[in-house]
Amino acid sequence: MKKKKSILTGIVLKSIICLLVTVGILYILPVRTVFAAENSGPLTGESGNSTVLQQPGTAQTPEELQELNIANTFTIRYDNGNGEINGALRILLTLTLIAITPLLLICLTSYTRVLIVLHFVRAALNTQTAPPNQILVGISLFLTFFIMTPTATSIYTNAYLPYEAGELTEEEALTEAVAPLREFMYGETQKKDVELFMSVSRQNWDGELDSIPLTVLIPSFLVSELRTAFFIGFLIYVPFIVIDMVVASALMSMGMMMLPPTTISMPFKILLFVMADGWSLVIGMLVQTFTR
Predict the structure, then answer these.
(1) How much is the CA Rg of the chain, to the nearest whole Å?
(2) Which of 171, 162, 232, 221 has the alpha carbon at shortest distance from 196?
(3) Is residue 138 part of a domain?
(4) ∠ CA 199-205-208, rounded to 5°
(5) Which of 39, 80, 126, 175 has its CA 20 to 30 A from that of 32?
(6) Is residue 236 part of a domain?
(7) DSSP string, 86-98
(8) Could you tell me which residues are beta bridge partners of residue 79?
(9) How far apart, in whole angstroms, are the C-alpha atoms of residue 186 and residue 192?
(10) Closest CA to 102 of 51, 56, 144, 44
(11) Which residues of 211-248 are buried (b: 16+ CB within 10 A; e: fewer)?
């Protein structure tokens, strides 16, 4: 019984302490007096601007009767025909764009060709992980930015700036932004690839860029980029294969069949690549393969 009484006494004391603390906090807080805003009349909104369209009983025609007299109507005003995007919608569009940016970077730019060719160079040198993947990806990104600079500048000048100035709607700005990308992809796409996908989709093509749907142009561009990248990779492989064959023949003639030819040929391939300034030649010729 004594324990129960002590527990009840403790609970009561805690409740009293909490109540006193709450009252003290409310007492310390400053008191603010709130006054209602002055209103010169029964109208809402700014002074002198009535939201009542017509006074009751003034309608003379059926058309006037269809107009609603609502005291709390509001008007949406657009700035030069372009309304601002809601903040939450702007954040959603930004996050969506960030999510699809890697896909756009890979499929709509020169990134695919550059990265594949650089991987062929590393494989031809037989250096395994030198340079590492991070370095190859970084080089590919910066080369892509360099190659795509004229296209990006055209998009910024013809689409982004007019849209921010209110001269273009969202649909028009999107059309203007896609046009430079279409011209770039079409310049690097072989016609037989376009004809292939147009025939698969059962569409007729008159040979003009404007008549190619974006859903056809993108896969055609990717197939052409793969073909071009592998052809460049083959040309890079040829001199290194010659070195491998010469080293293998020399080892065979000396009877050193148990020694892997690649172990001996790799230093010679690296030496040839360095003496010929291979990185400058490969990257320079690779950039020049794109029509700027």
Answers:
(1) 37
(2) 221
(3) yes
(4) 140
(5) 39
(6) yes
(7) PHHHHHHHHHHHH
(8) 82
(9) 12
(10) 144
(11) ebeeebbbbbbbbbbeebbeebbeebeeebeebbeebb
Taking the C-alpha atoms of residue 107 and residue 191, their distance in angstroms, rounded to an integer, is 18
- Per-residue tokens: 241: 């294969």
Please state whether the peptide bond connecting residue 239 to the residue before it is cis, i.e. omega within 30 degrees of 0.
no
How many residues are given for the chain?
A: 292
| Residue 43: inside a domain | no
Single-letter amino acid code for the residue at 274: V
Alpha helices in the chain (DSSP H): 2-28, 62-66, 87-107, 111-125, 133-147, 149-155, 161-164, 170-187, 191-200, 214-253, 261-275, 278-288
- Total tally of structural domains belonging to the chain: 1
Task: Provide the token pair at 14.
Answer: 């805690």
| 187's tokens | 């310049």
What type of residue is 133? N
For the full predicted model, state whether its pTM sits above 0.85. no
Contact 72, 186 (CB under 8 A): no
Which domain does 118 fall in, by range? 110-288
- 41: three-class secondary structure by DSSP: coil
Which DSSP symbol is given to 79? B
Residue 128 resides in a domain: yes
